[in-house]
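Narrative progress, year one. The postdoctoral researcher (J.K.) led the effort to move from monomer predictions toward full complexes, under supervision of the PI. The following entry was the first complex the group processed end to end, covering 1181 residues in total.
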Amino acid sequence: MDADLIVQILFAAIKTGTPLLFIALGEVICEKSGILNLGQEGMMLMGAVVGFLAAYGSGNMGFGVLAAMAMGAFMSLLFAVLVLHVGANQVATGLALTIFGTGLSAFVGADFVGKTLQGFQPIPLPLLSDIPYLGRVLFSHDILVYFSFVMTIALIYVVNKTRIGLTLKAVGENPHAANAIGIKVLRVRYLAVMFGGAMAGLSGAYMSLVYTPMWVEGMTAGRGWIALALVVFASWRVGRIMLGAYLFGLASIMHLVLQGLGWSISPNLLAMLPYVATVIVMVIIGADHFKEKLLAPRSLGKPFDPRNMA
Amino acid sequence: MIRIQARTEPSNIMKVASPLIAIVLTLIFGSILFSAIGKSPTQALQVLLIAPLADSYNIGEMLVKMGPLLLCAVGLSLCYRANMWNIGAEGQLLAGALGGSAVALFFIHSESVFALPLTLIAGIVSGMLWAAVPTFLKLQFNSNLILTTIMFNYIALYLLIWAVHGPLRDPEGYGFPESAIFADSTLLPTLFEGSRIHLGILFAIFAGFVGWFILTKTHLGFQIRVFGADEPAARYAGFNSKKLSWFVMLFAGGLAGLAGVAETTGPIGQLTPNISPGYGYSAIIVAYLGRLHPIGAIVAAIFMAVLYMGGDLAQIEMGIPVAVVSMFQGVLLFFLLACDFFINNRFINTNNQATN
Amino acid sequence: MKTHNSIFRLELDNITKEYPGCLANDSISLSLMPGEIHALLGENGAGKSTLVKTIYGVVSPDQGDILWNGKEVSIKSPSIARDLGIGMVFQHFSLFETLTVSENIELCLSQKQLSDIEDLPHRISQLSEEYGLDVDPSRYVHSLSIGERQRVEIMRCLVQSVKLLILDEPTSVLTPQEVAGLFNVLRTLSKEGCSILFISHKLHEVTDICHKATILRGGKVIETCIPTEETPASIAKMMVGDLAEQDAGYSKKEGTETVFKATNLSLTSKHPFGTTLKDINFELKAGEILGIAGVAGNGQDELMAIISGEDGRNVKRALTMGRLEIGHMHPGERRKIGMAYVPEERLGRGAVPEMSLTENALLTHSKGFIKNGLVQWQSVKEYASELINKYKVKCHGEFSEAKSLSGGNLQKFIMGREIGQSPKVLICAHPTWGVDVGAALAIHQALLELRDQGAAILLISEDIDELFLLADRMAAVCDGYLSPLIKTEDTNIDQIGQWMAGTFINTADVQEAKA
């Protein structure tokens, strides 16, 4: 393989990893507050279809992105109300959200399948993109990729250095204690869940406005689920999520790599790679149970109802 | 003022009423939605819910759809009772179809009486294997069952697509990604002349009763219920959690595999890439709607099959996208989860209380 | 709005709080002077915790008023309580183990308070010295002992310079020596004018330190008294009502042959915040009760899990029953050879909350009720109703769900079920925790009866008084070490207290274990 191809592959890995990065960043904040939202796939699909429709209708890509984020946040609000106020099981509610989102997105987008958009265009950053190799890998992307860089850095700061991050960790570790010292647990969780929803919507918009600028039913192809694995893979650390997202991106474009090596394997078998990679990752992380217990937010997935604090 | 109060004892009435209320709310939601897109809600609901039961052909087609839904849902009910979050019925169904079809194609020129049983067994075993891998990974490496079973759904799908493009493709099929049509010796017998209703529906109803028997009458079923309701209690009592996990997962995988092979050897008669319109996912809703009770699943599967059938009819007759079915399923589960709140809570009128 | 000039810091006026099926607080009135140490006494379930949570804004009362310095206030949340100057130390600490001491304290402060304190870690060290609290602001909470954690909780309140400090059973998690240290801090605070509301059910503590005491029973105020003018017996009578039969003490027995033995049992904790067991040795004899004392979190849970087999790891020859090695056996196999087990959490472990008593009877007692894999539900039902009658379990019938029973009645049921299997070895953890006096008496009698029939009983409890009452021999755990065993007649509370604090641990052993 020559250097040019490697640059191309790494560039593609980042582009492919970006939707995963967005959705996993949202989910990690949600999980840090103690809530497991399995509705990622549904929210992402709704983000994709609404983002596409809004951009298609208005001709404004930025509006499409905002509409997708609003839709994602709204979907997660449904989840949040059921889980936080009605006390529904988080796993079942998340599944319901995914099934609902899959159906509703197909329903809403039925008339738009096959229509295409111009999509966001790459904006090579001045000076930075001239750095040999690195410039083409990192700084010749579209604006949303740059936004994902900024977002990751901002979240690392917020989670580790601010009182917001401290509050989030406290709620995720022990909501009862947090409630007892006067933290508004439900409010924190609502915000965290809705942040996750908005990011899932953004991730969907990236799929339908940048990655393949069109709408196809079920186009996210399980990325919402892979993002959940990614969060565990990253041990709930924001920085590692970026690394993980790009590794998964790389796994998804293995056909490019293999073509580069001159191999030929059925594309249908290669399409399994990201899913097989996810299973392998789950095995590796799961095997280190001790570490997982140490790092996972301790109230993750468990119900908390401040009314039952007798 | 009306406020919400926790009940001292859970309401048995609400346990049964909750799914029914959820269905009614879903229909109201549907009516509003249909009005919003300019379709007549009465006509739409008629096509969705009444038409599938209107004549014997439609009822037959409805029962054809009910079979795989019920087979998967019975297995999932047991899994969820044991807190094993198996989301992989879809993949297990596809694996069953793939494994069964491979054997059916082996018998393509045979008239042996063993051809069909062996095909069915191959389907069941394939489904079990597909459930066994995530189970093994969970028990051995503590990997997350929800995620691995989902991933196995995708892997099964691509494996199936690969197979019909490659090794199992009909050499005389003009390059279509489909297998050859199976020999009669490997086709499930139909129950009525001129209808597609086949043996699969009897398997499914039988499976429902077996599931019920296991859950309520056997010590194994008792252990499953304890394990799901209260894992620390199950560990304290010394129940073998690995054995229980294996049992429910293999049971569910086997039934889903049977559902898959029954589809290919029943109404379809060959292996195609789109043998399942998401039965394995819908079965999750069926299981919940049936209160994770195998007999409840029978009733819920009828409703879901009607909805599937109605979705097909609505697309043909009214141009409503078929995706409306999966959207309704999601809404239904939402409403069900919301209604379940009132099993343990109730509204009270605080004004009345003050005057009393 | 009520306002009047008042000498009281806090007044409660007819506070009422009802939970479904339970009137937790019934028209409670109470007042506190500045600098007063006021005891709130009562049995478990008397309504003490609900009342203090009301003052701290965690629970909102259905009726009644709270006056703070003579002004009516509505305390809707803990942050409002803290703004008023009310601090609380919870029984189950409200600390975050994955955060540092300093971060834990920071979370309790408002932005304004935080900006007033320039350097929080420095302020913590300063207060730490002033009150002799010994708290290091940079340590992670999960690395602290229970006593240290309590000091962090108190520090949280001191940083906010509270006017009222509420402590919910602060001494139940401390060794007798640590209790003395805590009381010194409380006396200092009281002299500085801080009011203290002190929840306890230990009488001698109340007479030691409190100026006044309010006694609750069944959600009502029974009496307000000056503890120094009362005798422990008279206060006890107020607490428990006419039921109070102070046991005169039961006869002690000597065990016969050894039926259960732990030899050089060492085990690393599975959980990052658990306790590692270190070279534990003891023999349990037929016909005796061996009591193990210790402050919670010193290895009791880990010890029970490995003895019952729930831990799941193979400790081979470290555990034997008779001549049989049982270290490799599953919990179910251990049950089959005569081990029974009463766990600490009765609801959610000892019994499945949503299942009927019939189903819960089958939970651990399946012998004779299973034929060809099928449950003989009729026989199980009869057995359950037999247990209900024999142990006078108050319930609607064998169809009642476990969670509908009171703690004491459920405990009698579980105890009966375990005893019904005629075990050779019974492991019993905190059997009367949170149980009313009548049920406790019944449980004690059942245990003694089982002992007299020749069973070996291992009794793990945090309640030293109960251990002295029941145990024939005693030991204590501290930080995963087990003290020597001693006959109950040959020891006293002081010595066991020392052992609970770890004085028996040989420093050479510790060096060795660390190396």
